[in-house]
Specification:
This protein has 18 helices and eleven strands. The chain is of the alpha/beta class and 403 residues long. It folds into two domains: 4-80 and 214-395, Rossmann fold (3-Layer(aba) Sandwich); 82-203, Rossmann fold. The protein has a seven-stranded mixed sheet, with helices on both faces. It is globular, with a radius of gyration of 20 Å. 53% of the residues are buried. Bound molecules: pyridoxal-5'-phosphate. Pyridoxal-5'-phosphate binds at residues 79, 81, 128, 130-131, 197, 235-242, 294-295, 297, 345-346, 382-383.
Length: 403
């Protein structure tokens, strides 16, 4: 099998509800993003994550520059996901209190006055690891309960990390999408609040808040960058992360940016949807076994689908070796490039980019993306070594080596 498969997203673009999509962008406009960042910054240990330059790698593969935003440093949780979960919980609590999030801080949300007004709240979620850890962290920080459910095959270490945040957590016997349906049923039966990073009919507000929560990282990026990127490679599970980044950057910069989506073969719902070329996305099912656990989702978030089908250029799906190569490249930098510890889902876009820049089999793709010595390429390392055993197996012991 090929290491990469790709499809031109625009070739299939059907823009029936384009006005609606453009109107939806206002949720990610700078004034909205400022509200999100202001709330996050009320956390007493808030710190920006670094944006690294990989100049030696850029000259090796023949582009102008490569920047990597390293979210492994986010809130000491080794992944970006907490930004969404904590903002959604903050917005939910603010709504319950009849208050505006703009005037609430972490400190006030934690206060006994708030507990007296709201009583005990339990937040429930499905996760591959990172989102649930963020929700568990946020619930604990703010003095609430969390119940987190993980799909079959989830790493024990990721389960333990969630339990360490004081949440009830278990690994189910179902895949990701079925676990989402299960937790939504549990929430209904028990009066728990679902904090899920994807939407479905009748459940739209909280997923939007989660997507807005992610924008703090991209606001930091534009402040850290000197020039607009020409290309941005974004990993997709349900697409909420990529949708939020695309929605913000599309409005922030006047020049056009080429957005590329990256998924694993085993859970390539965006690739399959673009291949199908219809207005509605398609879903993929089954076990979705992949080391890119954060991307093992077979059903796109409809909000994200609308954004991504309007603003992205290409969808790539890749095999496990490509993600593993990305981890090794980032963990073993050239010359004075910074070392970046990237997990499987964090490194997949760098692995894809390296493959298409260095493997003549993908010259057509490289040319169609106009990746050349004038390109400024941006990546987001969305997680660090969230599964340390697998990280070592790959980076130290050469598991999933490129053949
Ligand atoms: C590390 C990591 N990267 C990327 C993603 C993809 O985010 P989304 O599901 O919003 O597409 C996830 C999702 O859990 C993740 O954990």
């Amino acid at each position: 099998m090929d290491k990469l498969m790709w499809v031109d997203n625009q070739q299939y673009l059907l823009q029936k509800n384009i006005e609606q999509t453009i109107a939806f962008l206002h949720n990610f406009a700078p004034d909205q993003v400022n509200r999100v960042t202001t709330f996050h910054q009320t956390y007493e240990n808030f710190k920006q994550t670094p944006l690294r330059s990989l100049n030696a790698l850029a000259s090796l593969v023949g582009v102008d520059n490569i920047k990597v935003k390293d979210e492994s440093f986010r809130f000491d949780l080794n992944a970006f996901k907490v930004l969404g979960g904590v903002y959604a919980i903050g917005r939910y609590v603010a709504q319950m209190l009849g208050r505006n999030i703009d005037e609430l801080s972490f400190k006030e949300l934690k206060s006994s006055k708030v507990k007296e007004q709201l009583g005990d709240l339990t937040f429930i979620s499905t996760t591959d690891g990172n989102h649930g850890r963020g929700v568990a962290w946020a619930a604990r920080e703010l003095g609430f309960q969390a119940r987190i459910y993980m799909p079959a095959g989830s790493a024990e270490e990721r389960l333990q990390n969630i339990k360490n945040e004081g949440a009830y957590a278990e690994i189910t016997t179902m895949n990701y999408d079925d676990t989402v349906r299960y937790t939504s049923q549990l929430a209904k039966e028990n009066g728990w609040v679902i904090i899920q990073d994807t939407m479905w009919e009748g459940y739209e507000e909280i997923p939007l808040w989660i997507m807005q929560g992610y924008t703090t990282l991209v606001k930091e990026i534009v402040e850290q960058l000197e020039n607009a990127p020409t290309h941005v490679f974004l990993q997709a599970g349900v697409g909420s992360f990529a949708g939020a980044i695309v929605a913000f950057l599309t409005q922030y910069y006047e020049q056009e940016i080429t957005f590329v989506l990256v998924e694993p073969y085993a859970a390539n719902c965006f690739y399959e949807s673009f291949k199908e070329g219809t207005e509605q996305f398609v879903t993929v099912g089954g076990e979705m076994q992949t080391i890119m656990a954060g991307l093992a989702c077979g059903e796109p978030n409809p909000l994200a689908w609308d954004l991504l089908k309007t603003y992205t250029k290409v969808s790539i799906c890749c095999d496990e070796e490509v993600a593993a190569t990305g981890m090794r490249i980032l963990g073993n930098p050239l010359a004075t490039d910074a070392r970046i510890i990237a997990g499987e889902s964090g490194a997949a876009p760098v692995g894809c980019f390296y493959e298409l820049m260095t493997n003549s089999q993908y010259t057509e793709l490289k040319d169609s993306l106009q990746l050349d010595k004038s390109s400024r390429v941006l990546f987001i390392n969305t997680e660090g070594d969230t599964d340390i055993e697998n990280y070592r197996n790959i980076v130290w012991h050469g598991k999933y080596a490129k053949m």
